[in-house]
Here is the input.
Amino acid sequence: MTAVIELWSGLHPLLQAVIKGLAVIGVMFPFGGACSLIERKVSAWMQGRPGPNRALPFWVAWVPGIGLLQRLGVFHLMADGGKMFFKEDPVPGHVNKFYFYLAPVVGMIPALTTVTVVPFGAYLNEAGKMVPLVLANLDVGILAVFAVSSLGVYALILAGWASNSKYPFLGGIRASAQLISYELSMTLSVLPVFLWVNVPGGNGTLSLFDVVSAQNGAWFGLWMPLSAIVFLVALFAETNRLPFDMAEGEADLVGGFHTEYGAMKWGLFFVAEYSHMLIGSGVFVLLFLGGWNPLPWVPLADVAVWLHLTTQPILLGLLSIGIFLGKALFFIFLFMWVRWTVPRFRYDQVMKLGWQKLLPLAIANLLFYALLIAWIQTRN
Here is the structure.
């Protein structure tokens, strides 16, 4: 392991950045396909069905090990990937071709950009200091996530407008209205967290790593439950997942903004949606569930001492990544669980919930914790 660390340290910083970027792409794209398989299996489990298990001829199941993979639906994942890359992709003649092709690319850029500022683990360096595993450790991490992820709606608007069709256009309009309605509540819900993080030092940080470090004791989700609930509901709306999928709305908009899309261009929208789900779940875990700290009042540094991993940064890093991904994948399951159990809201209900319910709750929650933190400061 020491040789691996020395080899990595000897690489040029630009080469390190390229390798990290390729690693992110190599994780995010397969993750989108894997989530599609998991979602089919979750829906099948909830509905008492076996789910996808017929991608190969029946006699292949007799090959050792293949039968299990077939029953799990792994070969459906491979078939879907091949179909997206190689199927015919006719483009309707009435679309605005430049923006029609541009929209899926614009949809992927925010998803692959925001992941660079989200820490996904940590390890102890030689000085015994916790160091985050992140591509770009910014002091304004949460601000970067909100700023870049909000650009994803432009892909939906571009797709709806460039399709020159009424149903995609309505889907794009709905997407923009929904984003405005819920992004404000989401931002207000995280302000109490950063008010508390900045109380001791007052250094004005917006770093997600500092938020996790502040949760070495109690997690913010335990004593800021309303902030967590508002953020989670807004996250469902921001990722266009049921019951907030107004941008697609198959019951009334055919397929919404991507009605005219197929093959790989549709696949990019598909991967972008699941990427936003993963990043949103990761940010929720960092803000409210202690990040890579395994339990409340049990920080990762203590676990490293108990397991004698203080001098094993690679093993400790892998352990922290496993803890973080385990929490994030639970929320991916929650997204799927809600999709198959909660009916879709009407458009007017979505707007009413965002402006008349969630926003007042977020404002009241912010005022309460601002006053509480000010009172705690005066007592100290």
